[in-house]
Automatic annotation (TrEMBL):
<protein>
    <submittedName>
        <fullName>M15 family metallopeptidase</fullName>
    </submittedName>
</protein>
<dbReference type="InterPro" id="IPR052179">
    <property type="entry name" value="DD-CPase-like"/>
</dbReference>
<dbReference type="InterPro" id="IPR003709">
    <property type="entry name" value="VanY-like_core_dom"/>
</dbReference>
<dbReference type="Pfam" id="PF02557">
    <property type="entry name" value="VanY"/>
</dbReference>
<feature type="domain" description="D-alanyl-D-alanine carboxypeptidase-like core">
    <location>
        <begin position="214"/>
        <end position="339"/>
    </location>
</feature>
<keyword id="KW-0732">Signal</keyword>
<feature type="region of interest" description="Disordered">
    <location>
        <begin position="30"/>
        <end position="95"/>
    </location>
</feature>
<feature type="compositionally biased region" description="Low complexity">
    <location>
        <begin position="30"/>
        <end position="60"/>
    </location>
</feature>
<feature type="signal peptide">
    <location>
        <begin position="1"/>
        <end position="25"/>
    </location>
</feature>
<dbReference type="InterPro" id="IPR009045">
    <property type="entry name" value="Zn_M74/Hedgehog-like"/>
</dbReference>
<dbReference type="GO" id="GO:0008233">
    <property type="term" value="F:peptidase activity"/>
</dbReference>
<dbReference type="InterPro" id="IPR058193">
    <property type="entry name" value="VanY/YodJ_core_dom"/>
</dbReference>
<dbReference type="GO" id="GO:0006508">
    <property type="term" value="P:proteolysis"/>
</dbReference>
């Protein structure tokens, strides 16, 4: 669910007066000009945000001060942190004091493809100054670096104003907790605890299945939507081949492959017991109806899945070109649910999961 502007719990008049007086004493409410916003460009609006005023970006400092877009005075954005480094699981909100405030609409905008897109808005309530909790929308997690600004609308007594640009750098951290979609399982990172099995597994409804395919609920619901949309787009049914596998079953499976291909050969395409993503319930193998899963690559369904799985929180876990990083041959049929935000990050950066987590 998208983050949004959340109005703060209103402080008392006395507390607000003290806060504004403190800002005035520090010289931050007055505001001063400094280096201009280097990004330039135009302003647009997304479906989830109302149109914002579109003045030319104004001179703004790397601190908390901004300038209005005419000679009507200055507007301050006290508390707007312009240089933020966060892990993806950290909060992304600032308490921002805007002065003057009364009747102004505050738009949160993100720089995307040369334009400023309005992600969300709120209306300020108090006259001299208002304090708002400004939370970035989920889009800040979708790329290594994103850029944001605030834009305050014009009123009868205040010109439209633009804040300094906030640059947000995000890093994703892997977890060893198999109950979370950000768990990382590799040849060097086993599933812990040994013998782990999810508390709840369900069978996805809708897509065809070549056996008893069970997944954790979030992954199951997502693959239902993915399979339905894949079939609608390609005219071919997407079939689920394999979901959760126990550690014991994985040991048996690897043993069979090793007997056929040798241990080193099996290691290229099969995980050893305790090192399979399937044990977490977050991974599923798929194919196109009538096609052996090992020949899934290059089919219309495979091409669609490779281009669109991220929209449903899935990634193609072992992509072509990533063999030396993942340790496995390319497997276009092996999908891993990681959640929509991380899947978007992996898609847009063109990385493997290991690279996204910084452990490659």
């Amino acid at each position: 669910m998208n983050s949004r502007f959340v109005p703060p719990r209103r402080s008392s008049r006395l507390a607000r007066t003290v806060l504004v007086a403190t800002a005035l004493a520090a010289g931050t409410v007055a505001g001063t000009a400094s280096s201009p916003d280097p990004t330039g460009g135009t302003t647009s609006t997304l479906a989830d945000g109302a149109p914002a005023a579109q003045p030319t970006p104004t001179a703004a400092s790397r601190s908390t001060r901004g300038r209005e877009d005419s000679g009507a005075g200055t507007t301050s954005f006290v508390g707007w942190d312009t240089d933020a480094r966060r892990t993806a699981d950290q909060p992304s909100a600032d308490g921002v004091l805007v002065a003057p405030a009364q009747g102004r609409r505050l738009a949160l905008q993100q720089r995307v493809d040369g334009e400023w897109l309005t992600r969300s808005t709120l209306t300020l309530d108090h006259g001299g100054a208002d304090v708002a909790r400004v939370a970035l929308t989920r889009h800040w997690r979708h790329a290594p670096t994103t850029r944001w600004r605030l834009q305050a609308s014009a009123t009868a007594t205040a010109a439209a104003a633009t804040s300094a640009v906030k640059e947000v750098t995000v890093t994703w951290e892997a977890t060893d907790d198999p109950t979370l979609p950000t768990v990382l399982v590799t040849k060097d990172r086993p599933v812990r605890p040994a013998g782990y099995e999810p508390e709840r597994l369900v069978r996805p409804e809708g897509p065809g299945q070549a056996g008893d395919v069970r997944l954790v609920p979030a992954a199951a619901r997502a693959i239902e939507r993915l399979a339905a949309d894949a079939a609608a787009a390609t005219g071919r049914e997407l079939v689920l081949v394999s979901g959760f596998r126990s550690a014991d079953y994985q040991e048996e499976l690897f043993g069979r492959y090793a007997a056929q291909h040798g241990t080193s050969g099996a290691d290229r395409f099969s995980a050893r017991s305790g090192h399979s993503e399937h044990q977490t319930g977050w991974a599923v193998d798929v194919t196109e109806a009538g096609v052996d899963f090992t020949r899934f690559g290059g089919t219309p369904s495979s091409d669609w899945v490779a281009a669109n799985a991220w929209r449903y929180g899935y990634v193609v876990r072992y992509p072509a070109g990533g063999e030396e990083i993942t340790g496995y041959d390319a497997e276009p049929w092996h999908l891993r649910y990681v959640g929509e935000d991380l899947a978007t990050y992996v898609h847009r950066t063109g990385t493997t999961l290991e690279e996204a987590f910084g452990v490659a």
